[in-house]
Write a structure and sequence with these properties.
It is found in: Cell membrane. It holds the Pfam family BPD_transp_2. Keywords: Cell membrane, Membrane, Transmembrane, Transmembrane helix. Helix 1 packs parallel to helix 12 and helix 3 (48-62) runs parallel beside helix 7 (165-183). The chain has one domain (48-310): ABC transporter involved in vitamin B12 uptake, BtuC (Orthogonal Bundle), CATH 1.10.3470. The protein is 75% helix and 1% strand. By secondary structure, the chain is an all-alpha fold. It contains 13 helices and 2 strands. It has a two-stranded antiparallel ribbon with strand order 1-2. It has helices spanning 2-30, 37-46, 48-62, 70-86, 92-117, 121-140, 165-183, 185-202, 208-225, 227-233, 244-254, 266-285, 290-317; strands at 145-146, 235-236. The model has no long low-confidence stretch (mean pLDDT 92).
Length: 318
């Protein structure tokens, strides 16, 4: 039994870990300062927001849907936090609670409209993207709002380990999501919905609460993700999170989450985030131009999608 589990774990994560090791090896040979503990800490403290968004996106993709609004909802949550603290003198704790609740409500709206009116989640989330971004600009008057140092503690590395509370929150979210997916009835039903929603309904299970619940969890994680850039800048930025939804989807796909639904893994998604972060950091250390970095990152994403599609077709043929 133990040998079987070890073999399954190696098959599940071995490819991603090998890819990470190769990237680290290549960049370590090309640059003098890459293979250092400081670089690892730098990468770790840069990825909390993408990790949280990608974990939420994993859950959404598992049920066979997509959420394009995560970046805008994250920015909206940051704006709510900033306005409450800077203009209304709310404490950090209550402001966080309000901002995360706001983001979760956005997720509920997206999920509820998709379920109740049968509008594709792609379209609904595209609308929510515009609404949340517009609301963010309205709240902040399209200007960066300085909050102050009270919020900075979320992104400040802890002296003992050199890692920020935001990163630790992201790691907790990864393992909590993995437990939810693999060890709970909720997670099993989500996988079943993504595999064959009609069969689930015909078996007498109401899919709506689970589907909407997934979007609420994704929204909640967007709210937590909004804490990272806001605390790092000590300000709420109306342009925060622009385009990050694409990176979140890319991390999921690199991690093996199926775009067709029914398959996903939060830990693999986290490894996908690390692949993207290591790739971008390494290219920056090599002084690669931004345009070339985008081309290389895009090629990696396309290759990952092709591999995912081929794997899906192969499994379907079997």
């Amino acid at each position: 039994m133990i040998k079987k589990r070890i073999k399954q774990t190696a098959l599940q994560y071995g490819g991603l870990l090998t890819a990470l090791a190769l990237l680290i090896l290549v960049f370590s040979l090309q640059t003098d300062s890459f293979f250092q503990i400081g670089t690892a800490r730098l990468i770790a403290n840069q990825i909390p927001e993408l990790t949280l968004l990608a974990v939420g996106m994993t859950l959404v993709l598992i049920i066979g849907q997509i959420d394009l609004s995560v970046g805008s909802v994250m920015a909206f949550a940051g704006a709510v936090l900033g306005v409450l603290m800077a203009k209304h003198d709310w404490s950090l704790g209550f402001a966080i609670l309000a901002s995360v609740s706001t983001a979760a409500a956005c997720g509920w709206v997206t999920g509820a409209i998709w379920i109740w009116f049968r509008i594709p989640s792609f379209i609904v989330s595209l609308g929510m993207l515009q609404i949340a971004r517009g609301a963010t600009r309205r709240l902040l008057d399209s200007k960066t709002l300085t909050i102050g140092s009270d919020v900075a503690t979320i992104s400040e590395p802890l002296p003992a380990i050199g890692l920020s509370p935001a990163f630790l929150i992201a790691i907790i979210a990864v393992f909590a999501a993995q437990f939810l997916i693999s060890r709970t009835v909720f997670g099993r039903y989500c996988v079943a919905i993504g595999t064959n929603a009609e069969a689930v309904r015909m078996s007498g299970i109401r899919t709506a609460p689970y589907a909407i619940g997934v979007f609420v969890i994704s929204g909640l994680l967007c709210g937590l993700a909004g804490l990272a850039p806001t605390s790092l800048m000590e300000a709420a930025d109306p342009g925060a999170g622009s385009g990050i939804e694409l990176s979140a989807i890319a991390a999921c796909v690199i991690g093996g989450t199926s775009l067709m639904g029914g398959r996903g893994n939060a830990i693999s998604t986290f490894l996908g985030v690390l692949v993207i972060a290591v790739l971008q950091t390494g290219l920056s250390r090599m002084s690669v131009e931004d345009a070339n970095k985008q081309i290389i990152t895009g090629m990696v994403i396309i290759i990952a999608v092709l591999i995912d599609t081929l794997r899906y077709n192969w499994e379907k043929s079997k």
